[in-house]
Design goal:
The complex is a heterodimer of chains A (about 250) and B (about 375). By secondary structure, chain A is α/β, with parallel strands linked by helices. Chain A has helices spanning about 40-50, 75-80, 95-110, 115-130, 145-160, 175-190, 230-240, 240-245; strands at about 5-15, 15-25, 30-35, 55-65, 65-70, 80-85, 90-95, 140, 165-170, 195-200, 215-220, 220-225. Chain A has one domain (about 5-90, about 160-245): 3-Layer(aba) Sandwich (Rossmann fold). The chains are: A alpha/beta (about 250), B mainly beta (about 375). Chain A: This is Fe-S cluster assembly ATPase SufC.
């Protein structure tokens, strides 16, 4: 059973400590919501798990099924079954979506998919997320609207089928229709029960569509409170003020 | 541009058929300061023994005539007057010139391919090529440079009224080659000239494409792609001289550099003279520096002498591979080397798509792949 285990994780950016001892375990079949105010370090956690070079792990461990994630390169982590849906996917000029997706699928599955099957799989994936067919020929994220970028992230999630997915504010900047489409994608991904989701969000809105099993409140670079879905309702009513004061 | 119509710019003050008019460069001149003269094998100071050999073979489209002519042919040097020391050395030293003529209103059915094959880098060779596209004709010409050589030449493209010429010039030399070349395009009324320069091989390549206009409505599109490896010096010096109203020029040169002492130089000079109202020009140069130890010099110069232009702009950007690009691809499982290849391929893709000759496009794509696999 896939398990992502984060133990006492400390992360710095340019010598400034952002994460101050994060402990979190995500098992397959579970959905965890990580909620917190802006600047609390939520995205830092996401990028540190993915291995972005800007973030330095100063102490602590991250393991996936017992394997040391921190010693793996960015691409090795992805091939091991970790996925990060990015808040701000970068534009890569001249690289087409279809070429990118085929390269990614080939890398993660360990062999090139048959072109005919892949074309079909891609079309079905795009249809399910209401993505226009012309999209595949466009340059990666170039000129995409905010909603298109997020749909594209979820398309990758569904194609790559990771063990554990970290979704970094996938809900931000989406209108209600797009939020529903994206949430349905996440729910399809979770429906197998064999995958774990860490949903990072500022708002409770997406949790109406993607029901979490656990809610963690993040403030000052660590988890300050944990509970079930009811904790989200409490946050909705009371906001983060209580936690930001406490951590300041 | 002739002697009697010198541009006002101080950068391009001189042009002449006479070797004596150009002193041996010392390397301190603005036009020579980036070029390592010691690697020119004497092309610049008259010491190069003229014992080399570059075999010129033309495979013409059936509509096209090809002649080999002597120095006294009236078409030689008609559109272009040498503008620097090596250019005039080549002009005063070549023995036979090749003249390709596309007759009036002819639309060529296939590309005319000029193979220039260097046989040795021991002695120098001088060459001259004239391509005349008569009014309303349309043609595609490919210059394919390969092998070992120390070669200096001048190429004149004379594009007649309403005619269209597309040129691909491929510098795919062996590692020991030295090539100094001037490509001049003279555009008559409503003429279209599209050039695509690809410079990949050679120890030192210095190519100076220039454009002049003799009638309104001329349209020049100059694209270039270069890939400098360790030790290579690849220099492109462009000059577009807008002396006639209502003409257009668009320049887009992109390069990648990798390895110790890889050096790329791009100079983009555009002059819009007082009389050239309604000019529309844009020039762009980008350099992607893939490793430490490589260096790109990029100098756009836009000299505007009239207030009435339709558009005039330039941009130059040199930078490293963007870590965020490779991170994004790696985060999807794509190994670093492949991510790097995808990003660099993407960087060139838009430009390569502009090559209209399919087999050349495929060859350039394959060459870029091969460079990246090094």
């Amino acid at each position: 059973m896939p398990t992502l285990e984060i133990r006492d994780l400390h992360v710095a950016v340019e010598d400034k400590e952002i994460l101050r001892g994060v402990d979190l375990t995500v098992r397959s079949g579970e959905t965890h919501a990580l909620m917190g105010p802006n600047g609390s370090g939520k995205s830092t956690l996401a990028y540190a798990i993915a291995g972005h070079p800007k973030y330095t792990v100063t102490s602590g461990t991250v393991t996936l099924d017992g394997e040391d994630v921190l010693s793996l390169s960015v691409d090795e982590r992805a091939r091991a079954g970790l996925f990060l849906a990015m808040q701000y996917p970068v534009e890569v000029p001249g690289v087409s979506v279809s070429n990118f997706l085929r390269s990614a699928v080939t890398a993660v599955r360990g062999e090139a998919p048959k072109l005919r099957l892949f074309t079909k799989e891609l079309k079905e994936g795009m249809d399910a997320l209401s993505i226009d067919a012309s999209f595949a020929q466009r340059n990666l994220n170039e000129g995409f609207s905010g909603g298109e970028k997020k749909r594209h992230e979820i398309l990758q999630l569904e194609l790559l089928k990771p063990k554990i997915a970290v979704l970094d504010e996938t809900d931000s900047g989406l209108d209600v229709d797009a939020l529903r489409v994206v949430s349905e994608g996440v729910n399809r991904f979770r429906s197998t029960g064999e995958t774990g989701v860490l949903l990072i969000t500022h708002y409770t809105r997406i949790l109406r569509y993607v029901k979490p099993d656990f809610v963690h409140v993040f403030a000052g670079g660590r988890i300050v409170e944990e509970g079930g879905p009811e904790l989200a309702d409490k946050l909705e009513a009371e906001g983060y003020e209580r936690y930001t004061k406490a951590s300041a | 541009m002739g002697l009697d119509t010198k541009p006002l710019s101080t950068l391009h003050g001189k042009s002449s058929y006479d070797l004596e008019d150009f002193p041996v460069p010392t390397g301190r001149e603005e036009s020579w300061r980036f070029t390592p003269l010691s690697r020119l094998r004497g092309l610049h100071d008259g010491t190069a023994p003229v014992t080399g050999s570059v075999v010129v073979e033309v495979h013409p489209s059936p509509e096209v005539s090809v002649e080999t002519v002597g120095r006294d042919d009236s078409r030689v040097g008609k559109a272009y007057v040498p503008a620097d020391r090596v250019s005039v050395q080549a002009f005063t030293s070549f023995e036979k010139a090749t003249v390709i003529t596309v007759p009036k209103e002819a639309v060529t059915s296939e590309p005319t391919v000029v193979n220039l094959r260097g046989e040795s880098a021991e002695g120098a060779t001088y060459g001259h090529l004239v391509v005349v596209v008569e009014p309303l004709a349309q043609a595609v010409v490919v210059l394919d440079h390969r092998g070992s050589a120390v070669y200096a030449d001048n190429v004149e493209f004379v594009v007649g009224d309403g005619a269209s010429l597309r040129v691909v010039s491929l510098q795919d030399w062996a590692g020991d080659a030295v090539h100094v070349s001037h490509h001049h395009a003279q555009l008559a009324k409503d003429a279209t000239f599209k050039s695509f320069v690809v410079t990949l091989g050679g120890d030192l390549v210095r190519l100076s494409p220039s454009v002049s206009y003799t009638g309104r409505g001329g349209d020049a599109d100059l694209s270039g792609l270069y890939f400098a490896d360790a030790g290579q010096h690849l220099e492109h010096r462009l000059l577009v001289d807008h002396s006639v109203p209502d003409c257009r020029s668009h320049v887009d040169y992109r390069g990648a550099l990798q390895g110790d002492e890889a050096h790329a130089v791009w100079i983009g000079d555009v002059i819009i003279r007082v009389e050239a109202t309604g000019t529309d020009t844009y020039e762009l140069n980008r350099n992607l520096i893939l490793t430490d130890g490589a260096r790109a010099d990029s100098v756009p110069n836009l000299e505007i002498l009239t207030g009435e232009v339709a558009g005039a702009g330039h941009a130059s950007a040199s930078g490293r591979l963007d870590d965020e690009h490779t991170f994004y691809l790696q985060a999807r499982g794509i190994p670093y080397e492949e991510a790097r290849r995808l990003v660099v391929r993407g960087y060139f893709a838009q430009l390569i798509q502009k090559i209209e000759v399919e087999e050349i496009r495929d060859r350039v794509l394959a060459a870029v792949e091969a460079e990246l696999a090094r």
